[in-house]
Write a structure and sequence with these properties.
It is built from 13 helices and twelve strands. It is of the alpha/beta class and 359 residues long. The strands form three sheets. Strands 5-4-3-10-9-8-7-6 form an eight-stranded parallel beta sheet. A two-stranded antiparallel ribbon has the order 1-2. The two termini are 47 Å apart. InterPro entries: AFP_Neu5c_C_sf, Aldolase_TIM, Antifreeze_III, PseI-like, PseI/NeuA/B-like_N, SAF, SAF_AFP_Neu5Ac.
Length: 359
């Protein structure tokens, strides 16, 4: 299959298409749908391609003891972990409201379905692609069921090994051709020494027929830009309206100004990637005309002399003569006119020199 496909309606990824930028709102909305809408609008205004949330059906993601355990963290929204998660979880109807709002704003809307029932709901919602959170990447029954839905998939790889990712590839590939792997390290915030951007190039070699991207939890935007320079076709970053808000993700998230800078910087890096064809460009012509070096006579050279290397020098010369890079081609050829010391060696005075000419 080609390294490109449609991830959201009208938006292709992979190949030479622009990097797809996901603003991961997650649960940084504080359980407030008004804030969630504000964040969707912010993602759009900053130039992101997608606003993404996290959806779970609590009783299907957690067992009873996990939900009932005491949760005394400063980030807690309740006495138990279940109460905390319920505060942050939007209802199905609220998700429909958010999806409608995203459509009005004009930005792609999706979510990570963090259990099988959440995936069923998101499928019913007809999200354009499924995001697989790192915690579910080795949940093979979940992966298989999600892949069979037929929608594209973006799969994070935090906490996984290369061998696990090979298994994931085989499971998903059997049912679904359109998926992406994201290099990811599941730490919040993430230290630079644990990012391991080199995994991106390993994924590109190991899985050459799918796009590879990066999901980052580090501070700032520089590392994400480096990922794009390495060929990441999808970038996912958590976003927040205020890094001081309650919640574990806020400190590892980008503010609106940081997100806007990330988007504009990614587009700048994409322009700078340019082409792999090395040649003199039109923009270099003024510099070449001023400073480009050519061959001159190191000594006086009479007409009819067969040139040797010790007769020639390279200088910035007026008029510009034979380009410096062709000096070895002049050796053994005969000059057809008398040359004074320091004269430019012009192409027309060298017999048999036919650079850029038909001989």
């Amino acid at each position: 299959m080609p390294l490109e496909f449609e991830l959201c309606p009208g938006t292709m990824i992979g190949g030479n298409h622009p990097c797809f930028i996901i603003a991961e709102i997650g649960q940084n909305h504080q359980g407030d749908i008004a804030i969630a809408k504000q964040m969707i609008k912010m993602a759009k205004d900053c130039g992101a391609d997608c606003a993404k949330f996290q959806k779970c059906e609590l009783e299907h993601k957690f067992n009873k003891k996990a939900l009932s355990r005491a949760y005394t963290s400063k980030h807690s929204w309740g006495k138990t972990y279940g109460e905390h998660k319920r505060h942050l979880e939007f209802s199905h109807e609220q998700y429909r409201e958010l999806q409608k709002y995203a459509k009005e704003v004009g930005i792609c809307f999706t979510a990570s379905g963090t259990d099988e029932m959440a995936v069923e709901f998101l499928h019913e919602l007809n999200v354009p692609f499924f995001k697989v959170a790192s915690a579910d990447t080795n949940n093979f029954p979940y992966l298989e069921k999600t892949a069979k839905k037929g929608q594209p998939m973006v799969v994070s790889s935090g906490m996984q090994s290369m061998e696990t990712m090979r298994q994931v590839y085989k499971i998903v590939k059997e049912h679904n051709q359109n998926f992406v792997f994201l290099q990811c390290t599941s730490a919040y915030p993430l230290n630079a020494e644990d990012v391991n951007l080199k995994v991106i190039t390993e994924y590109q070699k190991e899985f050459p027929d799918i796009p590879i991207g990066y999901s980052g939890h580090e501070s700032g935007i520089n590392i994400s830009l480096a990922a794009v320079a390495l060929g990441a076709k999808v970038i996912e970053r958590h976003v927040t309206l205020d890094k001081t808000w309650k919640g574990n993700d806020h400190q590892a998230s980008l503010t609106p100004s940081e997100l806007a800078e990330l988007v504009s910087s990614i587009r700048l890096v994409e322009k700078a990637m340019g082409t792999n064809i090395k040649k003199m460009l039109p923009c270099e012509k003024p510099c070449y005309d001023k400073l480009g070096k050519s061959v001159v006579a190191k000594v006086k050279i009479p007409k009819g002399t067969v040139l040797t290397l010790d007769m020639l020098a390279v200088k910035v010369a007026e008029p510009m003569g034979v380009t410096a890079g062709d000096i070895f081609q002049l050796v053994g050829k005969t000059v057809t006119e008398d040359m004074e010391e320091d004269d430019s060696i012009l192409p027309e005075v060298v017999e048999g020199y036919c650079k850029n000419k038909k001989c």
